[in-house]
Amino acid sequence: MLPSLTNSDCKDTNESNSCSSNNLQVILFFFSLYLVAIGQGGHKPCVQAFGADQFDEHHPKESIDRSSFFNWWYFTMCAGCTVVLCILNYIQDNLSWVLGFGIPCVVMIIGLVVFLLGTKTYRFNIEGNEKNGFVRIGRVYAAAIKNWRSNIAFTEEAGNVIPQPCSKQFRFLNKALLAPNGSKVEEEACSLSEVEEAKALLRLAPIWAASLVFGIVYAQVRTFFTKQGVNMDRTIFPGFDIAAASLQSLITLAIVIFSPIYDCVFVPIARAITKKPSGITMLQRIGFGIFLSIITVVFAALAEMKRLETAIEYGLVDDPSATVPMSVWWLIPQYFLFGIAEVFTMIGLQEFFYDQIPDELRSMGIALYLSVIGVGSFLSSFLISVIEKVTSKDGQTSWFPNNLNQAHLDYFYWVLAGLSVIGLALFIFFAKSYIYNKKGMVQG
Prior knowledge:
By secondary structure, this protein is mainly alpha-helical. Among the domains are: 133-199, no CATH class; 211-433, MFS general substrate transporter like domains (Growth Hormone, Chain: A, Up-down Bundle), CATH 1.20.1250.20. The chain has twelve helices and six strands. A two-stranded antiparallel sheet has the order 1-2. Strands 3-6 form a two-stranded parallel ribbon. Mean pLDDT is 80; it is low at 11-18, 152-164, 182-187 and 440-444.
């Protein structure tokens, strides 16, 4: 809405048409981008945790409804993204960027007003412990380290009785139950609940690490999947070519279609078989999604092999800008399959990290789920850099040249499939030994 650039700010030449913006516009532009990042940092980790807190986890029906909440939250988010891709992008490119940004601005204001109007009806969890969650857990680790070299036997004969029930995993943390001098002094030693919270947080680490393979595959969907479609025939009907980036809408479309099917069809059937309220466990849901991501990269590898064969057949290997006579619809299976994989893994990770982390740290639990994607993207970049360096030795063409017709994305996809198989095996191993942390009770 700011006054547009004056003619004196633009330089027209035969080679380029460029405009330079003034300092105020540059500052405002980057300030806006940073505001988006700050807003997302406050909103994304908290909105799901706050929404799920509205359900009583000790009430049988509300506990089931809470599991459905994560499904429908992800459904509505993806439905919104689908609308944006279909409508707002068109408005911004063909009508007005002011209108394209103004519409979501007004919608956000309405959403904020509705959110504030509900303030009187929200449930807020009241902390039963005065100590901060981070302080409590940090205190447990500190106490366990102090007593690390202690030879005190945890027996009644030694006068050091460990309260029961006490979980069997990570027994070294049980030393935090004792005072540093070896005698049990209740006001100095950590409580059983504090020790179990620390163990619950530590149990999440292997699951988080094993889930990173999904984050690595996730990074390819927004990058190499799109690059695959750039050189393919993207004609939908005569006179209209779909943008390669718009293929990502197939993922959100798959999520919008499959989420209700999962919640209304799959869960009731699974519940009748397993007798579990959620149908399958959270870890089973995550693991199946990782399995689907493996199938996704296999389909991507096969499609890329077909694309390269077509490029060779028509003599287009040395022409990076040529359109390979192969329909972009060959990429539909990998996009659609990954959308279904997200319904299982992404929503499963949301619910798992929310449910299994100490109550006061639930927003941090959602942040952990988000970090799977963030760290996975960094690992993907690192992996590509290593492969680029190794395959380009001695003047050879690497797997990732600018000319995609000379590249070998198919090799890279097969590497990802192999890594994902290893990651899934590790995930299954850790999942089998995982002890669910049921709030209000300690499992052995």
